[in-house]
DNA sequence: CTACGTGCAAAAAGTTTGCAATCGC
DNA sequence: GCGATTGCAAACTTTTTGCACGTAG
């Protein structure tokens, strides 16, 4: 049976409040505001538990360690967008649909994963705005 | 300047011959047939080198360590299919196209990644074929 | 009170790096 | 011969696990 501990509550709250998928480290940092003694192992254990119980969903982008988002905001089929400048991940609630036809003959498609990459609405596009070298740009993972 | 060593040649050949993306371990195993003394560190170093020189491309599926494929077979825009039973990855040379419209307003889409999941043409579909427990099923990564 | 949960530290797993020996050119 | 390359082992990084203590119910 699952108990309600300060740690578990803090971790859960942080993810519910984020509005976008958070990395393990982001969860730890944010939850330590509430529970400063919180350890990394506890975060890993609870993330796994919360995923299994269906309270949160793991978001795995290609070549990146997993992020976690509340299923409250993500119960429906959706995809993700990662800003190549600030590295943050956003939900995309649209879907091209009907992708089964892309598979080779004899292959059955049960599921798909789509990730868009580009520039979010808050970052200066590196393509459009050609700045002099050494110009300030948002740190990876900044914002918030 | 890059030298032509037995190790590098073996690694390169294995990837060119595979016809599908191979994991680091698969590359090591296959290349050790030619060069039994080949070490894992050498594989890592050469994969990085070959990626940088554009000879091979890294394929990163969500939540999985990278695989590598020859750019000879993969110079064009394409996607990937992973069989959920045997875990092997195949190329999908089709693309839904026009995904920019899915992004939120103000977001610019430069690139996208699509992964299909399902059952390949050689694995019995776990959905269709309900077998008795303990029945033989292809090992993950088997075949070849 | 008892079992589940936590924190810490050690252990795994996967990847990178330092270094002396080796080999291509 | 010289410098790039290799193999091994040690160092790192990230995630998991063991264990004694703490705490919810």
Rg of chain A is: 18 Å
Task: Give the CATH superfamily of chain A.
Answer: Winged helix-like DNA-binding domain superfamily/Winged helix DNA-binding domain
Measured by residues with Cβ under 8 Å of the partner chain's Cβ, the largest interface is: A-B, 39 and 39 residues
Strand and helix order of chain A: HEHHEEHEEE
Strand content of chain A: 15-25%
Number of strands of chain A: 6
The CATH architecture category of chain A equals Orthogonal Bundle
What structural category characterises the helix and strand content of chain A? alpha+beta
| Poorly predicted sequence stretches spanning 5 or more consecutive residues of chain A | 129-144
- Strand order across the largest sheet of chain A: 1-3-2
N-to-C terminal Cα separation of chain A, in Å?
35 Å
CATH topology of chain A, by name, is Arc Repressor Mutant, subunit A
Helical segment tally of chain A? 4
Largest sheet of chain A: 3 strands, antiparallel
The CATH class name of chain A reads Mainly Alpha
The amount of helix of chain A comes to 25-40%
Primary descriptors:
144 residues, 26% helix, Arc Repressor Mutant, subunit A, alpha+beta, DNA-binding, 4 helices, disordered C terminus, 3-stranded antiparallel β-sheet, homodimer
Describe the structure.
The structure is a homodimer of 144-residue chains. Helix content of chain A is 26%, strand content 22%. Chain A is an alpha+beta fold and 144 residues long. Chain A has one domain (6-98, 109-126): Orthogonal Bundle (Arc Repressor Mutant, subunit A). In chain A, the strands form 2 sheets. Chain A has a 3-stranded antiparallel sheet. Chain A has a 3-stranded mixed sheet with strand order 5-4-6, with no helix packed on it. In chain A, a hairpin with a 7-residue loop joins strand 2 (56-59) and strand 3 (67-70). Chain A binds chain B through residues 58, 60-63, 66, 79, 81, 83-84, 90, 92, 94-96, 99, 101-121, 125, 127, and chain B through 58, 60-63, 66, 79, 81, 83-84, 90, 92, 94-96, 99, 101-121, 125, 127. Strand 6 (108-119) of chain A pairs antiparallel with strand 6 of chain B, so a sheet runs across the interface.
């Amino acid at each position: 049976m699952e108990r309600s501990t300060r740690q578990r509550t803090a971790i859960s709250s942080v993810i519910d409040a984020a509005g976008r998928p958070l990395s393990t480290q982001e969860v730890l940092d944010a939850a330590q505001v509430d529970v400063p003694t919180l350890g990394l192992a506890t975060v890993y254990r609870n993330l796994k538990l919360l995923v299994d119980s269906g309270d949160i969903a793991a978001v795995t982008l290609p070549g990146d360690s997993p992020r976690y988002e509340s299923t409250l905001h993500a119960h429906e089929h959706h995809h993700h967008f990662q800003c190549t400048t600030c590295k943050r991940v956003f939900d995309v609630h649209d879907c091209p649909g009907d992708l089964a036809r892309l598979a080779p003959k004899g292959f059955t498609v049960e599921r798909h994963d789509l990730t868009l990459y580009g520039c979010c609405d808050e970052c200066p596009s590196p393509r459009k705005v050609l700045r002099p070298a050494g110009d300030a740009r948002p740190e990876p993972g900044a914002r918030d």
